[in-house]
Amino acid sequence: MNLLSASRSLAVTAGLSLFLSVTHAQKPTTPLYKNAAAPVDKRVRDLLGRMTVEEKVGQLSTLLGWEMYQRQGNSVSASEKFKQAVQTQHIGMLWATLRADPWTQKTLTNGLNPVLAAEATNALQKYVIENTRLGIPMLLSEECPHGHMAIGATVFPTALGQGSTWNPALIKQMATSIAQEVRLQGAHDGYGPVLDLAREPRWSRVEETYGEDPVLNTRMGVAMVTGFQGSRIDSDINIISTLKHFAAYGVPEGGHNGGSVATGMRELYQVYLPPFRAAVKAGARSIMTAYNSIDGVPCTANPLLLKTVLRNQWGFQGFSVSDLGSISGLHSNHRTAANATEAAAQAINAGLDADLSGYGFGKSLLDAVKQGLVTQAVLDTAVSHVLRQKFQLGLFEKPYVSPEKAAANVRTAAHINLARRVAQESVVLLKNEKNLLPLSRQTKRIAVIGPNADNVYNQLGDYTAPQADGNVVTVLQGIKNKLGSQAEITYAKGCAIRDTTTANIAEAVNAAQQADVAVVVLGGSSARDFKTEYQSTGAATVKAGEGVVSDMESGEGFDRTSLDLLGKQLDLLKAIVQTGKPVVLVMIEGRPLNLNWPAVHVPAIVTAWYPGQEGGNAIADVLFGDYNPAGRLPISIPKSVGQLPVYYNYKVPARHDYVEMDTKPLYPFGYGLSYAQFAYSNLNATVTERADDVTVNVTVAVKNTGSRDGDEVVQLYVTDKVSSIVGPVKQLKAFERVPLKAGEQKTVTFVLHADDLKLFSPDQKWLVEKGDFSLMIGASSDDIRATKDVTVSRTIAVKP
Question: In this entry, which stretches build a coiled coil (predicted)?
Fold first, then answer.
């Protein structure tokens, strides 16, 4: 090759190299945060590094979702309000997008069925991914306490009924089905479980809880969390579980919803926090702060709760979120902040990550950052907690869902059957004089009477969506389904729950007189209606002496001064009893109501709480003996509000009687009858000590001595006989719902550890103190069948 040829060749090669270099430089590279194979923490850091302060603040805002879509016929799309919020506020989360109820003004006509719901969430995701600089998908949260609060979803019994099953495995199965219905419609986060202890029955939200006991609440809460979240949160059938309400929300002074609570730190640690701790240890990915304050510090701006306990002691890895409007409440309600900017700074500096409302953070948080009240490090920490969940959910890779799958897998026959089973197991038989129940299927004439006998919405509880005709089986319909045309079934409402102007007791009496047995269905209601006024938080606005009287006497905002049956319900019941016909009282209610008169004069009483869409079938199954009831009370039923608080595990010393009555509840915690009878024997216990733990193995034989198959709920209570702090008279530590055929005997085994025997010592350490413990096995907190003392020989330190 001559010199000229060589020069030309070199020039061509150099030009080609330059061309390839330029071409390679112009080829777009995939950002690390969009690389599904990269570790989540690296993706979070990469995305944070690309975000502006405004985009970061936007990711912490959770706006009201039902305003973010628009529906025209069977077409649904992102609303202009959503587009504006995305472009101006850079929002990252929505709440209750698919919710329908009188507060949201979403009905069966203008709301979303499962197919349209999936299309709506897809439209929202498509807009935010394609029309924002970084394409960060939305995280959509929904209300899920007893089913997805959306049109077309399955409605299960409310939490008080779930707690009455004493069956965590069943509740986990229920939660799994709820999660599937939510995720298939395009949402990712379910609000629930509610882990508040209900020790104030006048409080309006008792129905949302599992009852009064920390151990029962713990077991049920863990079941919900593991059912919601499953083994893979990035699947298309699992959702984040958001724990509510952190903390001690269920014991407000005077029963006032959201009011202050009077609890010491030891009570907080030993009683109110354990259910939350167990749920966090089970992997819960989100937690919601409560409206109340504790010892003068609002929960929404409480660093002890949000930093020291939640993150440092428990190792929580998820994100925290305010309850609706509770950040602004630091200024308007608690008055710990002079303005909205200070409120935002207080909350996020205390460890709160996200704002449910859209106005607690937003502009106020931006102002706080600009004024130096909030550092970039604090802001980045909160944003990283939210982004981590979006990555782990797989939203960057799979933001869309299939409307066809939603249509096929929401409210399936299997889920409806499961709703019936949960309702069956939740029914508590309180009284059965002379074995009136079960009723004979040969009964020819039955009168079904009362305001809750054939009222769809009174049966479902608060946080329930509108229901299409035929979706809900009432007690009247359930009895008709059971007996068909073989019996003459007459219905008379008799009266309303609260309204005293529309009663027709004479009609009900006439129906009872013509019947062989009267099934009277009374109680309460959490059924919202379109005439009720609502606060910005969604709680009802209740006015004493209001002109329009709905049935609603329970549900968020409906606190009570008494627990008496309202309206003319007791008059109705007395009139039916006076006919001399056998009477079965069925209570459908959201809180324990006064049963003093029925307990004396009515031969058979059951409570079903709010039993959900299959409640009528389940109650009929129990009344006619196709299902042997085994529900147990998760909350004590008092004789009088003057006894309150009346929970079973009060602190020593023992209480003395009043002038008017004794101190015992009418029906105690853990109580419930069966159509079978059970005997206990051979209680044994052994203690094994190790350096950092103690194991107590407890066994007891339980036999079904009756003629019917049935379940017994075996309950283990413990008393620390001498301790350095004042403890409860007894405390539930373990339980098991045991199926037993007629004549069958089983050995039930419980295993306790140091965590079950510990106390929070005077110097604020968790210890199992050496000494004697009394083990008590029984059928309720007040029906102990066998006792045995065991000894721990040395004090053992326990990790927080």
Answer: none
